[in-house]
Amino acid sequence: MIVAGFGYRTGATVASLRGALMATGSAADARVLPLVDALAAPVDKCPLVAPFARALGVPLIAVAADRLAAADTATRSSASLAARGAGSVAEAAALVAAGAGGRLIVPRCISADRMATCAIAEGVYP
Predict the structure, then answer these.
(1) Domain layout of the chain by residue ranges
(2) Taking Cα atoms as reference points, which of 103, 110, 100, 104 lies closest to residue 80?
(3) Contacts with 102 (C-beta within 8 Å, 6 or more apart), sequence order
(4) For the CA atoms of 2, 45, 74, 30, what is the dihedral angle to 10 degrees?
(5) Which of 38, 62, 75, 83 has the most C-beta neighbours closer than 10 Å?
(6) Rounded to 5 degrees, what angle do the CA atoms 116, 73, 4 make?
(7) Does domain 2-122 have CATH number 3.30.420.180?
(8) How far apart are CA 118 and CA 22, in angstroms?
(9) What is the DSSP letter of 87?
(10) Full-prediction pTM beyond 0.85?
(11) Cα separation of 61 and 58, whole Å?
(12) How remote is the C-alpha of 69 from its chain's centroid?
């Protein structure tokens, strides 16, 4: 299972999410995008991510705040640490949603408008 995890700032748009996904390189090639099996985001961030997931035809996995904070992320953002207790919301969401044994395959990438981040993890959903 390949999961794209998202984090975003207030004011982000679906275009911001798409830009963050494109920045991972996973969506740059039309043959690769279908490999994204699900999107993931913190529970309170799902309202913006849900229409994007529907547009892509994939499920959205809502990740609880305590699970985000417990994830061991590859990168560290002081803003993410202050707001969520996670080094990277996008990486944490992707890793948690990928399940036990999930591994990060693309660390967080930032959209061109700097409003959203996306990371890609693979694993088996619990």
Answers:
(1) 2-122
(2) 110
(3) 3, 94, 95, 96, 121, 122, 123, 124
(4) 40
(5) 38
(6) 45
(7) yes
(8) 9
(9) S
(10) yes
(11) 10
(12) 14
